[in-house]
């Protein structure tokens, strides 16, 4: 690999990543104690009596889950904005939205308004809903084929980095105190500001420039800027082949994609993978780590440090990504099976926590292991698969569908899980997640082709065997390369 190639690629990932991390910078450190106390104080000041505990629990669950509603709104509009303005411009404008959300949340205590937290969380969710598909598509399109899986998996790394940074900053000794928690909530705007200042120096993705803008010179210039000087004919050939398959076609709408038989099984896989991420139990553990550990019998003074260990474990798992060695299918399928088994064990340890003094520690170890397996396997591999199995003409609507399912899952889990946790048999909900994981693992094993090291044309041919059964449908014409060969050497 050319040195400039690697350096440019890594620099760009570090530039696009912070904006994604900012959408999750505060999410994983649950300021439940301070926010609940603030809601109660504000209620008492306004109405002269403390809020009922059931109402407080409801407002807290809405505070958490409204992030998912915002994400649903943002992801629903991502297709239109991506097609009209391009991914780079959308990412830049999205940073302004995140900074606004951070400012609103940071001023909530000063204004004595818990509603500002709700508004800020909603805007933060909208920003995250836009950021996730934009980041995934942008990084996937600027990456050479041999680094595509690694580049796509960096999205999960920056999510993990955001969670870990929020948990570290949220310790009582730093910004997690009674007086400084609004500063912690506002700090999610810092990574967005970094990206806002640095991303303008980087180009739009080469496939977007060539296929949608018809700018061949701009495409070549972007490739040289991203990958360095040299021959990149293999990757260019893939862009040309995809351009040929898209000839006389437009970016599909969500409804058109759902009706198109040529992408039926790709759509099935997106639905399965997106739904499984949220229904795997990982969101439940992320959202309510405090409540889960409290139910496991740990002292409240120790829980903040234990939640930090969970976040750091996922970050280390994301750093040690092995996606380019084992492939996407293996990581997803194996990850689902291991995670399902761990949830069964977590259910057992939570049920027996009152029997043995050491059982809560077993619960914590299993939770950390569950997060590690998710970070190493399904987290990064799922993102890579979403980018790789769709042609550019249907990638935006496919991401809308996947994101809608993702944010609906976040809202449902965020709304229902706190009530499940406080019930006497709340730990048995993990058995539902276990069944979903095992079922999805079987589906992935039977129907998802391996995408590692394959072009979009080769992956499409694999799916055509499912979409059209015995019919032989070529993914690209044989004469594609006649008019589109060029070299990027300066």
From TrEMBL:
* Catalysed reactions, semicolon-separated: D-fructose(out) = D-fructose(in)
* GO MF term list: D-glucose transmembrane transporter activity; fructose transmembrane transporter activity
Can you supply a Gene Ontology BP term from the record?
Answer: dehydroascorbic acid transport
Query: Where found in the cell?
Result: Cell membrane, Sarcolemma; Cell membrane
Cited InterPro entries: GLUT, MFS_dom, MFS_sugar_transport-like, MFS_trans_sf, Sugar/inositol_transpt, Sugar_transporter_CS
The UniProt keywords, alphabetically, are: Cell membrane, Membrane, Sugar transport, Transmembrane, Transmembrane helix, Transport
Q: Which residues form the Major facilitator superfamily (MFS) profile domain?
A: 10-452
Segments spanning the bilayer are 57-78, 117-135, 180-202, 267-290, 302-323, 335-352, 358-377, 398-422, 428-448
Q: Tell me, in one coarse class, where this protein mainly resides.
A: membrane
**Record flagged with keyword Zinc:** no
Family that this chain belongs to: Belongs to the major facilitator superfamily. Sugar transporter (TC 2.A.1.1) family. Glucose transporter subfamily.
Name of the protein in question = Solute carrier family 2, facilitated glucose transporter member 5
């Amino acid at each position: 690999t050319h040195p400039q190639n690697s350096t440019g690629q890594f620099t760009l990932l570090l530039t696009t990543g912070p904006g994604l991390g900012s959408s999750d910078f505060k999410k994983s450190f649950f300021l439940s104690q301070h926010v609940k106390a603030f809601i109660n104080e504000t209620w008492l000041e306004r109405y002269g009596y403390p809020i009922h505990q059931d109402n407080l629990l409801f407002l807290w669950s809405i505070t958490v889950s409204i992030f998912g509603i915002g994400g649903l709104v943002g992801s629903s509009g991502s297709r239109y904005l991506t097609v009209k303005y391009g991914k780079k411009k959308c990412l830049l404008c999205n940073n302004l939205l995140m900074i606004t959300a951070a400012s609103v949340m940071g001023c909530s205590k000063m204004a004595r308004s818990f509603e500002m937290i709700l508004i800020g969380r909603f805007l933060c969710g909208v920003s995250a809903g836009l950021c996730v598909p934009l980041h995934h598509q942008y990084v996937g399109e600027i990456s050479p084929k041999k680094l595509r899986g690694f580049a796509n998996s960096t999205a999960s790394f920056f999510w993990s980095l955001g969670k870990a940074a929020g948990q570290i900053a949220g310790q009582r000794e730093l910004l997690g105190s009674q007086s400084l928690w609004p500063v912690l909530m506002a700090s999610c705007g810092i990574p967005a500001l970094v990206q806002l200042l640095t991303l303008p120096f980087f180009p739009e993705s080469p496939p977007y420039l060539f296929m949608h803008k018809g700018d061949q010179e701009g495409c070549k210039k972007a490739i040289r800027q991203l990958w360095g000087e040299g021959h990149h004919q293999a990757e260019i050939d893939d862009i040309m082949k995809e351009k040929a398959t898209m000839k006389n076609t437009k970016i599909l709408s969500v409804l058109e994609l759902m009706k198109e038989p040529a992408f039926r099984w790709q759509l099935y896989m997106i639905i399965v993978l997106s739904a499984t991420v949220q229904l795997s139990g990982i969101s439940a553990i992320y959202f309510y780590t405090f409540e889960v550990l409290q139910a496991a019998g740990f002292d409240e003074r120790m829980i903040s440090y234990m939640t930090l260990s969970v976040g750091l474990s996922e970050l280390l798992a994301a750093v040690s990504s092995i996606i380019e060695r084992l492939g996407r299918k293996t990581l997803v399928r194996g990850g689902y099976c291991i995670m399902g088994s761990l949830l069964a064990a977590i259910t057992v340890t939570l049920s027996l926590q009152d029997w043995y003094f050491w059982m809560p520690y077993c619960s914590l170890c299993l939770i950390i292991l569950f997060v590690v397996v998710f970070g190493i396997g399904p987290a990064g591999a799922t993102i890579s698969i979403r980018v790789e199995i769709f042609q550019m003409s249907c990638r935006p609507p496919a991401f809308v569908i996947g994101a809608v399912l993702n944010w609906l899952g976040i809202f449902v889990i965020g709304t229902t899980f706190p009530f499940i946790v406080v019930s006497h048999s709340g730990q048995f909900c993990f058995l539902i997640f276990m069944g979903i994981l095992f079922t999805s693992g079987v589906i992935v094993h039977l129907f998802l082709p391996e995408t590692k090291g394959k072009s979009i044309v080769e992956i499409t041919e694999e799916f055509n065997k499912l979409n059209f059964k015995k019919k032989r449908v070529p993914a690209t014409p044989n004469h594609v390369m006649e008019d589109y060969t060029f070299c990027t050497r300066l």
